């Protein structure tokens, strides 16, 4: 260090010298770097594993170690203390070629457990507790040559269908494995199964659209290439028409027919002309004709109020090339009446039994003979048969002794005719035509039911029973037992009618609700093997 006496001399050397001294002091104060950077720390073999140059053998491991020495191409794990393996669990071992996860209690794998293992050629999951494997678990293991799945309790249901399909197509060698359950497949070799052995296509009815009004009837029809539905709304005083919007994929309001007490709006297209039969509780019932210019419905006819006093339902049908409609009358003084089309209007054709308070009419053909089935609040349902020589329906038979049948609907399964009788107080019945008569084959609980509707979607035969007191129930026909099985419950308030519309690859079930919003349900097909 310079003494005080040397300071004047240093000052005499000038500012350049002082700058050099300052730089030197700063350099001495800064920390020195080592002449060579430290070498990175090499990961050690995990405490529960034994490692060689290129392999690791792990026992009683609580979790898959996060690091291994470099160059590991083979990993074995036994007696592991975990039961699930998460996504990307081995992604840090990209050089891995052999992976043996054996003799553990592994119960579940992530779909992406083996993500990143592009070099893997051998994989063993033997002697674990796996009952199923995630779909496409081995999808990205492009060079996998050997896969061992033995010693697991596989449940051979829809969730393993993908594995059956994969084993049929892969070149990977897979030793024989067996089904542990369910009972029908127990002990069978999975290699011997085929994708067609699994019935994995299910369905679901989900709310698709909500209409903010009450309604008591719904009818669908096609006119001029467009799909329409008509709702009777006695509360709001309209017969409302909606048209399907192919762009927005919803029904949108199209037109209203003013009707202060409409209980049924029945469309019928005759010679490319649209007519609407509007049945009303008060003020008489009427027939309207659609005009294009301007677009409107024009009333063309009144229905005789001395015959039809309290209409409840309207059915249309064709006989011998002629159009008819029949109105079920539910009053004590009225009569269920048939009207026939005659070039420019419908004219009274026949009155069926009076005084019976009919609630519904069903037209059907039995062995080439047209019939009408009348449901009534005061007597069991009766059948009328068409007499071609007289061009009249004549009384044929009584179906059953059951009273309180609100509605009778028919359906066909494998060319066999069935009826469903729905009741408000008692149970509903399924009857089968046995050549000379209908025979009861099934009872369905249906307390509070006013409406029943059989319908098909693809190859599936459904039946929906509405209820005023609980959930409405959808049933699915079982070909094995030839009975309906419970399928789904739908929450709707006091349904009065249903209609199925198939448009733009959608199957939509419309439900007219007397006490709540009118609803549209979409039939969704669900592949259980894809989950």
Helix and strand arrangement:
Elements: H1 7-12, H2 15-29, E1 49-51, E2 55-59, E3 74-78, E4 84-85, E5 98-101, E6 108-109, E7 122-124, E8 146-148, E9 154-155, H3 161-169, E10 179-181, E11 201-211, E12 217-223, E13 226-233, E14 238-245, E15 250-258, E16 262-270, E17 273-280, E18 285-291, E19 296-303, E20 311-319, E21 322-329, E22 335-341, E23 346-354, E24 358-366, E25 369-376, E26 382-387, E27 392-398, E28 405-413, E29 416-423, E30 428-433, E31 438-444, E32 452-457, E33 460-465, E34 472-478, E35 483-490, E36 495-503, E37 506-513, E38 518-527
Parallel strand pairs: 2-3, 3-5, 4-6, 5-7, 7-8, 9-10
Antiparallel strand pairs: 1-2, 11-38, 12-13, 13-14, 14-15, 16-17, 17-18, 18-19, 20-21, 21-22, 22-23, 24-25, 25-26, 26-27, 28-29, 29-30, 30-31, 32-33, 33-34, 34-35, 36-37, 37-38
Could you describe the 3D structure shown?
A hairpin with a 4-residue loop joins strand 13 and strand 14 (238-245). The strands form ten sheets. This protein has a six-stranded mixed β-sheet with strand order 1-2-3-5-7-8, with no helix packed on it. A four-stranded antiparallel β-sheet has the order 11-38-37-36, with no helix packed on it. A four-stranded antiparallel β-sheet has the order 12-13-14-15, with no helix packed on it. It is built from three helices and 38 strands. The protein starts with 6 loop residues before the first helix and ends with a strand. It has 531 residues and is mainly β. Mean pLDDT is 90; it is low at 1-13 and 15-36.
């Amino acid at each position: 260090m310079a003494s005080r006496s040397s300071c004047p001399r240093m000052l005499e050397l000038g500012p350049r010298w002082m700058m050099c001294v300052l730089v030197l002091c700063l350099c001495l104060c800064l920390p020195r770097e080592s002449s060579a950077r430290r070498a990175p720390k090499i990961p050690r073999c995990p405490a529960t594993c034994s490692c060689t140059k290129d392999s690791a053998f792990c026992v009683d491991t609580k979790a898959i170690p996060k690091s291994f020495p470099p160059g590991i191409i083979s990993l074995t794990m036994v007696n592991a203390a975990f039961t699930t393996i998460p996504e990307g669990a081995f992604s840090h071992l990209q050089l891995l070629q052999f992976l043996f996860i054996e003799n553990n209690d592994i119960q579940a794998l992530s779909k992406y457990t083996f993500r990143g293992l592009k070099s893997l050629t051998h994989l063993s999951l033997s002697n674990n507790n796996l009952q199923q494997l995630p779909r496409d678990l081995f999808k990205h293991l492009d060079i996998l040559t050997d896969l061992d799945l033995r010693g697991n309790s596989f449940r051979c249901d829809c969730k393993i269908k993908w594995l059956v399909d994969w084993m049929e197509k892969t070149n990977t060698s897979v030793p024989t494995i067996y089904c542990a359950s369910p009972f029908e497949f127990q002990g069978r070799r999975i290699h011997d199964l085929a994708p067609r052995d699994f019935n994995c296509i299910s369905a679901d009815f989900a709310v698709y659209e909500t209409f903010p009004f009450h309604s008591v009837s719904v009818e669908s029809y096609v006119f001029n290439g467009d799909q329409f539905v008509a709702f009777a709304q006695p509360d709001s005083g309209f017969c409302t028409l909606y048209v399907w919007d192919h762009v927005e994929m919803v029904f949108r309001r199209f037109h209203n027919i003013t009707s202060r007490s409409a209980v049924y709006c029945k469309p019928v297209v005759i010679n490319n002309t649209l007519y609407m039969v509007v049945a009303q509780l008060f003020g008489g019932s009427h027939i309207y004709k659609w005009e294009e210019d301007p677009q409107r419905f024009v009333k063309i006819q009144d229905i005789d109020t001395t015959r039809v006093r309290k209409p409840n339902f309207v059915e249309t049908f064709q006989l011998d090339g002629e159009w008819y409609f029949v109105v079920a009358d539910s009053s004590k003084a009225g009569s269920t009446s048939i009207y026939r089309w005659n070039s420019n209007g419908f004219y009274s054709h026949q009155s069926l039994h009076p005084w019976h308070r009919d609630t519904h009419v069903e037209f059907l053909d039995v062995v080439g003979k047209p019939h009408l089935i009348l449901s009534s609040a005061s007597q069991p349902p009766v059948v009328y048969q068409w007499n071609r020589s007289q061009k009249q329906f004549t009384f044929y038979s009584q179906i059953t002794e059951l009273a309180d049948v609100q509605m009778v609907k028919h359906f066909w399964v494998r060319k066999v005719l069935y009826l469903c009788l729905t009741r408000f107080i008692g149970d509903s019945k399924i009857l089968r035509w046995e050549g000379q008569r209908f025979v009861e084959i099934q009872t369905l609980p249906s307390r509070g039911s006013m409406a029943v509707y059989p319908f098909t979607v693809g190859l599936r035969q459904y039946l929906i029973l509405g209820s005023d007191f609980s959930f409405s129930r959808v049933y699915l026909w079982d070909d094995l037992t030839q009975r309906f099985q419970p399928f789904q419950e739908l929450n709707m308030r006091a349904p009065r009618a249903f209609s199925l519309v198939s448009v733009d690859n959608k199957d939509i079930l419309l439900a007219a609700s007397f006490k709540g919003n009118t609803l549209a349900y979409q039939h969704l097909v669900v592949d259980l093997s894809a989950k």
